[in-house]
Amino acid sequence: MTSSYDEVYGSWRKDPEGFWMDQASGIDWFEKPKIAFDPDQGVYGRWFPDGVTNTCHNCLDRHVEGGRGDQAAIIYDSPITGAKRTISYSEMLADVEAFSGALSDRGIRKGDRVIIYMPMVPEALVAMLACARLGAVHSVVFGGFAASELATRIEDCEAKLVVSASCGIEPGRIVAYKPLLDAAIEQSSHKPDVTIILQREEHRCELIKDRDFDFHALLQANAGRKVTCTPVASTDPLYVLYTSGTTGQPKGVVRDNGGHMAALHWSMHSIYGVKPGEVFWAASDIGWVVGHSYIVYGPLLHGNTTILFEGKPVGTPDAGTFWRVIDEHNVVVLFTAPTAFRAIRKEDPQGSLISDYDLSGFCALFLAGERADPDTIQWAERLLKVPVIDHWWQTETGWTIAGNPMGLGLLPIKHGSPAVPMPGYDVQVIDDAGHPVAAGTLGNIVVKLPLPPGCLPTLWNADDRFQDAYLAEFPGYYKTADAGFIDDNGYLFIMARTDDIINVAGHRLSTGGMEEAVSGHPDVAECAVIGIADSMKGQIPAGFIVINSGVDRSDDEIEKEVVKLVRDKIGPVAAFKTVMAVKRLPKTRSGKILRATMQKIADGESWKMPATIDDPAILDEVSEVLAKRGLKSRDS
Ligand code: COA
Ligand code: AMP
């Protein structure tokens, strides 16, 4: 099939508003928008400002009304617990109506915020969709975050209610959520009125009288109840998803209803190339944007069956799990992070487990979340014999900025590049002064405003922070904070972040946030956290600490405490396990820590002595410490 990409992208360029009005017709509206885009609303304009709709209606009711009631909406496959369950669109609708009734009885109304802190279980999706049904704004918090991260989010969005579970399950350990939730509520100055707790048999918890309610008891008590969808403005928020910023204070990315649906619906057929009724699997977590867009909303909006997988690519029980799920549930498209494939490859380098399964119905593997290294892509291509498609996006955009649109017909694949911009995105590469750079030259990747439907209109309660963080530096453009280049054929290459964000196993983390936690240790005088290359996780954080003079304790003891501190403050997901005490940190004469140079030394890359360095001998000290730890250094 020849690709219609040029034609489709060209049609958007010619008439952006007409293009998106056409896509808006792919969803149901209570009041159809007459205006595509109003540049005078919000920080940089708003999409479909006069439209009235409901996301839950579009995910469930309309499919049931349209004849998909008996089709599986969700296939829950949990190798970690041994559970498997198929839930049809009708069953899902009934549960969501019942849970909406329970939320509504507890005072949840349009615009109220509900935190969802849950593992990968169907009840989490019921809670998300019930919020959408009532026009309430959900904010899902990833289970690998610690209590204080949860507290920050409860406080920032002033959650009226929290839906949680008694536990999550990680290989070899139960993660008791309730103590984390109770600690978070204790720490937050804003207190939610009510919590609803899913009791899991693997580890039940005590409920606090008159505050904690049992999820399933509420579901049963409300079974059969009919709760209509609350009409919401297209521009009303559907959810807030917190993501790492450059400080310990995460950014609350806001997603609207109408633009989000139009964009995701388009992406399902045009980017992922799936047809309604087919099985789509995003092996991520609902706590991340990939989970929001492609475990929950995208597939359900488009009438697909979505896989909810509670397990890991390896160890649950082995590196053949992904192939088993694809075979057993007839998965057509899988979307995951490259790190998952690196983990599988490490366990089963020859891919010998693949031959145990029938993957004949499997059509494509999409990768995102971090740079897809050509080595991993080639390995997957060779063994799976399907296109392996890199695509680039961010929590902020909610869907692909650049990709290779399978539904429009694939363009030639270039390893190391997520290919070309999608309609809606005018992607440019500019230098620090804002001037366009020549093809092949590295620079700041920016998107010309307005951003397309689905992208964040602002940050929760923080228009000024949104403006400062994304729009101020390059007026008229959205700063992606990624650096890269565009080649002569218009293909994008994403090379690095321009801020302090690192990508650990596809999880986005701020080294600045980690430094804030580390510097909270009473014996630490100063510190620097950098991301160093890791063959499995892409990057891992490494902390350098200078211990206060006069402290009479071993470095080893303090280093262990620092590791625990970050785990307690940010959570296990930070994968913060490497801390090194150093005598001094390398700095410029004006006192700026030379993190980039330290990173190059650690990664064994070539580096130049910064002209402004205060004392070059300190870099030798850092090198020595790295070498002693068996980490790469310039001598390695
Ligand atoms: N709840 C509680 N803890 C969690 C968690 C959750 N939902 N998810 C991860 N953690 C914990 C892990 O148990 C681990 O704890 P440990 O330090 O006690 O071992 C820690 O957080 C780090 O987790 P992770 O970085 O995921 O490493 P891992 O070794 O457990 O697994 C992979 C590595 C590659 C298998 C895993 O990261 C993976 O499946 N990645 C797939 C990609 C993905 O989901 N990306 C998200 C965006 S697309
Ligand atoms: P997140 O918001 O967690 O989705 O992380 C977004 C960041 O991950 C981007 O800004 C990039 O730095 C990185 N990223 C995501 N997808 C890709 C990709 N396909 N190639 C390179 N980097 C990527």
Write up this protein.
With 636 residues, the chain is of the alpha/beta class. The chain folds into two domains: 5-311 and 391-484, ANL, N-terminal domain (Rossmann fold), CATH 3.40.50; 505-628, GMP Synthetase, Chain A, domain 3 (2-Layer Sandwich). It contains 18 helices and 31 strands. The strands form ten sheets. It has a seven-stranded mixed sheet, sandwiched between helices. Helix 3 packs across helix 5 (122-134). The longest helix is centred in the N-terminal third of the chain and has 17 residues, at 89-105. The protein starts with a helix and ends in an 8-residue tail after the last helix. The mean pLDDT is 96. Residues 5-59 form the Acetyl-coenzyme A synthetase N-terminal domain. It is an enzyme of class 6 (ligase). Residues 68-448 form the AMP-dependent synthetase/ligase domain. Belongs to the ATP-dependent AMP-binding enzyme family. This is Acyl-coenzyme A synthetase/AMP-(Fatty) acid ligase.
